[in-house]
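Trying the structure run again after the queue cleared.
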Amino acid sequence: MSVFDLLFMALPVVFLIGSVLLAVRAVSHGKSRKRTLIMQLASFAFVFAVCMICPFAVSAATGDAASSSAESMAYIGAAAATGLSCIGGGIAVGNAAPAAIGATSEDPKAFGKAIIFVALGEGIALYGMLISIMIISKIG
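Done. Tokens:
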């Protein structure tokens, strides 16, 4: 791998890190949080689109689009399954854990019932990881 290849692969990561730093700076200078969130989502969508379009254009130009396209889409599907399920699990645990702590502080007998809801939120992430393992095992 050449230095140019490594630089080209690191470019999206550098762009996203720079976008995060600019968003933090904008919020600290009094800009609207909603506006900076929308800008963050727009920059992520742009980087995602560029990272999706470039490999398809290269594989179409070289002529081996059929096999590499299916394999790359399987990897993207596995990553999306894990990523989105972890985000959903994090949101669920983030909402259920404080409620469980509050219920336990009022009535210690409620701990068993409350912890079940926290565990259900973590189960979502495990299901996503299981689906990713199944997708990746079909590739190889």
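The chain has four helices and no strands. Worth checking whether this holds up in the mutant runs.
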